[in-house]
């Protein structure tokens, strides 16, 4: 087997079983061969490399950690390392994959009926159908649970959806969009699978982003969008069910943050060994080594945290506050690491040729999505004090 990532200083990857590590290395090879060489170009053009979806599908890792997905082998640790590996290569493509597998497939796996899981998950696991997850709204991000404006009105065996969603990853090209809407009858949030091309559904690409530019985020409009009762997720009857999905995906975002930290550290370490000033590599200077060790310390501490979280997930004992703490802490440390890496590269750190500029920009989106640091802090604060402080 190939060497561990340089930034995996305590060799956590060695905790994987042999067959899991072989799978991870196969994914690493694909990412290094196909994704890394085009990442900057796709980012500059803000275009998604749709031709790579077939390659992702051939890896056979979509839905891997979903027990409800046919043929899957649930492993929180392997799933986490896959998220790390993808973010290490390109945070945009990691986000694409996380939206499809964690949010869209995860919603159907956790909240769909057996018939619904059988209907959609096999094709999604083969990536023949790509998913999106529509929760955030133009006027509702952190408060979307209580302030959701998208409505669902039942008319016989049909539901009529009206409203708008924003920042929907994969939204411009997804085949299946899991839309969350408030039932006008009981006021509860419910989930619906809307198929591409459904009348009344439109998706418009969000332009002029400074982060995750390869991700095709969309503004979605629902005007009299009619979906059958068979497309209402049978197990989604309130926002508590939505939160079950976010618990799982927030841990995935923490893993992504670790992947970004390791990538930034490795870029900085390589640069420090090559860049010479005052007649020797800058790696020989004390202040440069200080930056490198601080980067490595953050990445190692956060990797330890998410490995333990994965073990708790596999044991079925992790809760919302566990994922929330990992997401809040790891993304905060990630911001420090990419900043230090940019500092080490000095002027070269602000151009894409040296890669770190893309990671600095993309880290800002990772820091904010799947719950801001403030919201995740309040989730943990409520758990440890017994007092909710959201309003």
Automatic annotation (TrEMBL):
Domain of life, per lineage: Bacteria
PANTHER family in alphabetical order: ACYL-COA DEHYDROGENASE, ACYL-COENZYME A OXIDASE
Family: Belongs to the acyl-CoA dehydrogenase family.
InterPro entries reported for this sequence: ACX4-like (IPR045008), Acyl-CoA_DH_CS (IPR006089), Acyl-CoA_Oxase/DH_mid-dom (IPR006091), Acyl-CoA_Oxase/DH_mid-dom_sf (IPR046373), AcylCo_DH-like_C (IPR036250), AcylCo_DH/oxidase_C (IPR009075), AcylCoA_DH/ox_N (IPR013786), AcylCoA_DH/ox_N_sf (IPR037069)
Native organism: Nonomuraea salmonea
Cofactor(s) the protein requires to work: FAD
Segments forming domain Acyl-CoA dehydrogenase/oxidase N-terminal: 18-128
Residues of the Acyl-CoA dehydrogenase/oxidase C-terminal domain: 243-384
Name this protein carries in UniProt: Acyl-CoA dehydrogenase family protein
A Pfam family that the UniProt record links to this protein: Acyl-CoA_dh_M
Protein keywords: FAD, Flavoprotein, Oxidoreductase
Domain Acyl-CoA oxidase/dehydrogenase middle stretches: 132-223
KW Translocase (keyword) present: no
